[in-house]
Amino acid sequence: MTHVVTDACIRCKYTDCVDVCPVDCFKEGPEYLVIDPDECIDCAVCIPECPANAIYAEDDLPKGMEIFLQFNKKLAPTLPTITKRKAALPDAEQWRVVSHKLSGLNIAL
User: Fold this and answer.
1) Cβ contact 101:5 at 8 Å
2) What is the CATH number of the domain that holds 41?
3) CB-based burial of residue 50 (10 Å sphere; 0-12 exposed, 13-18 middle, 19+ buried)?
4) What separation in angstroms does the CA of 34 have from each of 3, 94, 95, 97?
5) pLDDT at position 109, please?
6) Which of 54, 87, 101, 102 sits most deeply, having the most CB atoms within 10 A of its CB?
7) Which domain does 68 fall in, by range?
8) Is residue 45 part of a domain?
9) Would residue 77 count as lying in a domain?
10) Taking the complete model, does pTM exceed 0.85, yes or no?
11) pLDDT tens digits for 61-86?
């Protein structure tokens, strides 16, 4: 099993989760993070660290969020690893309350 970054991370990109990951499985996109399922050890330490509540265990994904398993798996090999916390995106607090943000990205799944 792996953990999955979902819609709530898009256009926010809080990186609190990165600091606690013992295996550096987070990958950084321009407006989001993903978890590399081949690197994740299912430790769950990232879940409580995410201020946007964007991370779930694969088996606990909310209904309708299953697409994010594919999103993480497809994008992880193409993105650089992030190992240190960075500032969130400038308008992260505004985007934090918005849902269904995947449609705003130009990514074919």
Assistant:
1) no
2) 3.30.70.20
3) buried
4) 9, 21, 17, 19
5) 67
6) 54
7) 3-86
8) yes
9) yes
10) yes
11) 999 999 999 999 999 999 999 999 99
